[in-house]
Amino acid sequence: MKFGPVPIDEAEGAVLAHATTAGEKRFRKAHRLGRDDVAALKAAGVGEVVAAVLAEDDLGEDAAAARIAAAMSHRNIEVKPAATGRVNLHAEASGVFTVDASMIDAINAVDPAITVATLAQHASVEKGQMVATVKIIPFAVAASLVDKVERICASGEIFAVNAYRPITVGVIQTVLPGVKPSVLDKTLRVTEARLARFGGRLTAERRTPHEVAAVATAATQLARDNDMVVIFGASAMSDFADVVPAAIERAGGTIVRAGMPVDPGNLLVLGTLDGKRVVGAPGCARSPKENGFDWVLDRLVAGLEVTAGDIAGMGVGGLLMEIPTRPQPREPALQPARSALKVDIVLLAAGRSSRMGGPNKLLALFDGEPLVRRTASRALGSKAAATIVVTGHQRERVRSALSGLGVTVADNPDFADGLASSLKAGIAKVAPDAAGAMIVLGDMPGVSSRDLDSLIDAFRSSGGRSVVRASHQGKRGNPVLLPRSLFAAVAQLEGDTGARHLVEAEGLDVIDVEIGQGASIDVDTREALEGAGGVLQD
Cross-referenced Gene3D superfamilies, in alphabetical order (predicted)? Predict the structure, then answer.
């Protein structure tokens, strides 16, 4: 592949490096020029373009990324369609991610043009979450390089999502004088919540004296009827022959490992009894905050073997939190459940509809209802906590069309300056406790409340950390849901720059959600509006 200035007479088949305009026609970046395109550019006085010229043995970026992704062997992972030289791979189930790091390193060593990035080894993932991405950096890459990557992929499974299993768990809590029943009750609630995200169940509890014989008897009983036994000691393990490890051995079990290099979580005990796993939980497992117990539990519930060597190798990255108040007990505030993450909708309705030649497209009637009201009603019918409508052009008419709806109006007096001003006006009205804001265009009649809910569900599944974008047949579209971490960047936007710029510039994970044709249908022109069933109003 050759890259650089190309005379327009030689540009047929070349791939544009930058968006280029020929009169009223605009060619996007990465567009492959055809004969008619070249003629239009010449007619507009364009003498050369900066472009990539592919050699005979080159593969375009999408074709190369798709071939590499297709060559990979994996489990419980969905391969998304290639777009802009990228193929994203998403979890088909909740579970623990495992990856052959040597294969990833080998692929990335073939050539800088070909990259594969994944989540960390043993990362806990939720269904729908992106776990890996294949990216071709230039517009094309030699087929011989893709061949090398395919040979590496043929050597075995490159990564997998090991799905969680709905296990049953019996719990033992030992008791010493002074231990409050409320503490034990809270421990049960926290444990039940931990198991719920796997579909697991806490089936039985035994409260025993903090003595080896009593714990051994209870462990034997619970191991008989459950997939796993978890023991919470009233006193933390202070020696490897202390009550919990000694009780496991007294019951006829084996200690796999006592102690782990993860803080909080140092005092975990892992053993086996009658073919079942027995975990002596560290004291921090009484709290919902992530700790070493979660690392071991996740892997066991996903059906992965956890050895003494595995636990010994958890030290790098095992410092999960600073504890300046030690030896005071840790009681961190509860984090909101992912299902409760709050999302507000920012509906952009400030534009001038300049391509309509006069009428305001947002006031066009669809089934007798103004388009802006139809869109706002669908936003209000979604799982979003609030809907903020940004007004500007013909603000009074737009407000009138929204009469009676429970929306918040954000007026943008600077709407003529471009899209950025409307984004900033809308984001400024988002609730302080909202985890994200979904940017909804007012002129997309095909987007339903259910579509909006699909984006919100994906955002919540990501823990509120990812950008979520509607797509259609692998092509990005709208709406776009931005996490709060991008709000400060929105405040710095200028001119006609929108959310797409932020998605590309900030480097966050992007989850594409297929919602159908509605993601790509807007009504910028009279023809498009009428074709979608709208009737313009003067």
Answer: MoaB/Mog-like domain, Spore Coat Polysaccharide Biosynthesis Protein SpsA, Chain A
